């Protein structure tokens, strides 16, 4: 089974904030595949989708960003999912808003959700799709910025990025990830 994880924070007050781009991408995949994340286990919401390429789990950890690994590791263990079969979608301050960067492995780069995953999974060698949210404007603190909503001008750019993430996730089900990287980076 493949596992696609979108990182974010639970709760209405975090809906459509920059830090929740992972949740937004999972919601877009679920909508496209006509499913809902109706299962709740191990501090997360998920669903398992039976696709022509095989079973795929869509997961939103509900532990808050900084504790994402507390949800992901038990799910991987319970469903016997190998680290090679996961993709993590999350926000990146160092990329221009809407820009994607796919990687097969890497450090946390200061992202606390990824730090938690690396700590609980025990490796940094997992596939990831980073979605750019840009740096905060001068004078704005990073925590305030990542928990803010996208501007009206950014919304269409983010919607395009989410659609590309959906396409990349679908492509990854039947292609080697290196080929998906070449197509979407």
From TrEMBL:
<feature type="site" description="Stabilizes the basic form of H active site to accept a proton">
    <location>
        <position position="91"/>
    </location>
</feature>
<dbReference type="InterPro" id="IPR036416">
    <property type="entry name" value="Pept_tRNA_hydro_sf"/>
</dbReference>
<dbReference type="InterPro" id="IPR001328">
    <property type="entry name" value="Pept_tRNA_hydro"/>
</dbReference>
<dbReference type="GO" id="GO:0072344">
    <property type="term" value="P:rescue of stalled ribosome"/>
</dbReference>
<feature type="binding site">
    <location>
        <position position="66"/>
    </location>
    <ligand>
        <name>tRNA</name>
    </ligand>
</feature>
<feature type="binding site">
    <location>
        <position position="112"/>
    </location>
    <ligand>
        <name>tRNA</name>
    </ligand>
</feature>
<keyword id="KW-0378">Hydrolase</keyword>
<feature type="site" description="Discriminates between blocked and unblocked aminoacyl-tRNA">
    <location>
        <position position="9"/>
    </location>
</feature>
<dbReference type="Pfam" id="PF01195">
    <property type="entry name" value="Pept_tRNA_hydro"/>
</dbReference>
<keyword id="KW-0963">Cytoplasm</keyword>
<comment type="similarity">
    <text>Belongs to the PTH family.</text>
</comment>
<feature type="binding site">
    <location>
        <position position="64"/>
    </location>
    <ligand>
        <name>tRNA</name>
    </ligand>
</feature>
<protein>
    <recommendedName>
        <fullName>Peptidyl-tRNA hydrolase</fullName>
        <ecNumber>3.1.1.29</ecNumber>
    </recommendedName>
</protein>
<comment type="subunit">
    <text>Monomer.</text>
</comment>
<keyword id="KW-0694">RNA-binding</keyword>
<feature type="active site" description="Proton acceptor">
    <location>
        <position position="19"/>
    </location>
</feature>
<comment type="function">
    <text>Hydrolyzes ribosome-free peptidyl-tRNAs (with 1 or more amino acids incorporated), which drop off the ribosome during protein synthesis, or as a result of ribosome stalling.</text>
</comment>
<keyword id="KW-0820">tRNA-binding</keyword>
<dbReference type="GO" id="GO:0000049">
    <property type="term" value="F:tRNA binding"/>
</dbReference>
<dbReference type="InterPro" id="IPR018171">
    <property type="entry name" value="Pept_tRNA_hydro_CS"/>
</dbReference>
<dbReference type="GO" id="GO:0006515">
    <property type="term" value="P:protein quality control for misfolded or incompletely synthesized proteins"/>
</dbReference>
<dbReference type="GO" id="GO:0004045">
    <property type="term" value="F:peptidyl-tRNA hydrolase activity"/>
</dbReference>
<dbReference type="GO" id="GO:0005737">
    <property type="term" value="C:cytoplasm"/>
</dbReference>
<feature type="binding site">
    <location>
        <position position="14"/>
    </location>
    <ligand>
        <name>tRNA</name>
    </ligand>
</feature>
<comment type="function">
    <text>Catalyzes the release of premature peptidyl moieties from peptidyl-tRNA molecules trapped in stalled 50S ribosomal subunits, and thus maintains levels of free tRNAs and 50S ribosomes.</text>
</comment>
